[in-house]
Amino acid sequence: MRPIVKPRSTADAGCTHVARKNRRNDPDRLTLRKYVPTAGRHDDFREERRGP
């Protein structure tokens, strides 16, 4: 019921986080605001599509 998703940074850092989401409460793509260590600032992380 709670799949593991890997949101990717919108900055060009190539950084990812690991998160769990509830499909019932968040059916759309997840957006989190997290710290990007390579950029040295906070940025948006958006859920990327998973391949088959």
Q: Order of strands in the sheet with the most strands? A: 2-5-4
- Number of H- or I-type helical stretches: 0
Return the CATH class: Mainly Beta
- Structural class, by secondary structure, is mainly beta
Give the ordered list of helices and strands: EEEEE
How many structural domains are formed by the residues? 1
Average residue pLDDT: 86
CATH topology-level name = Rubrerythrin, domain 2
Pfam family, one: Ribosomal_L33
Protein name: Large ribosomal subunit protein bL33
Keywords: Ribonucleoprotein, Ribosomal protein
Family: Belongs to the bacterial ribosomal protein bL33 family.
Which key phrases capture this entry?
52 residues, mainly beta, Rubrerythrin, domain 2, 0% helix
Characterise the protein shown here:
With about 50 residues, this protein is an all-beta fold. About 0% of the residues lie in helices and about 40% in strands. The protein has a single domain (about 5-45), classed as Rubrerythrin, domain 2 (Single Sheet), CATH 2.20.28. It is built from no helices and 5 strands. The chain has a 3-stranded antiparallel β-sheet with strand order 2-5-4, with no helix packed on it. A hairpin with a 4-residue loop joins β4 and β5. The mean pLDDT is about 85.
